[in-house]
Write a structure and sequence with these properties.
The protein is an alpha+beta fold. It has three helices and eleven strands, in the order βββαβαββββαβββ.
Amino acid sequence: MQNHHHFLIHKPHGYLSQFIYEKKRPKKLLGELYHFPEGTMAIGRLDEDSEGLLLLTTDGMISEIVRSKTVEKEYYAQVDGIINEEAITQIKKGVEIGFKGIRYTTKKCEAKIINQLPDCIGEGRRIRDERHGPTSWISITLTEGKFRQVRKMTAAVGFPTLRLVRIRVGNLDLQILKAGEVVEVESFF
């Protein structure tokens, strides 16, 4: 029986959720943050502009479980403008987004306005100057994960995402990690 390794990482903005990138432009990769054992893979992805909790493992079976539609993923999104309850209700019911060239209606989800951010969010990178108007934060909890789904959902209701942070996967949360930190754990669940 092989001993597998499992890691929690607070992926900073500007890093790809991968270890190899073969295109011409140099990119920051996960292997620059920690010396991971051979065979380590990211479970799901956070795009280069997103940050927050990312799970890594050497066990492909765990990857399938976490990516299944039974495990919740919670995101905090800083959006352009002061989001209202009408937009939150639309997000909860499901909105139409584009996915792989077709129209797709997102599944029902949880969403709410966030008035106080937890410390683990941190200041992050400067999004823009206050002169460009107000911003607000929302929480969206999904059990699916289409390409750039949260960004597409907030844009669909008129509040484009400026900053996106995944704060929870299942019962694991970001609370103990600062940006760039990696912790090895016995198991995920």
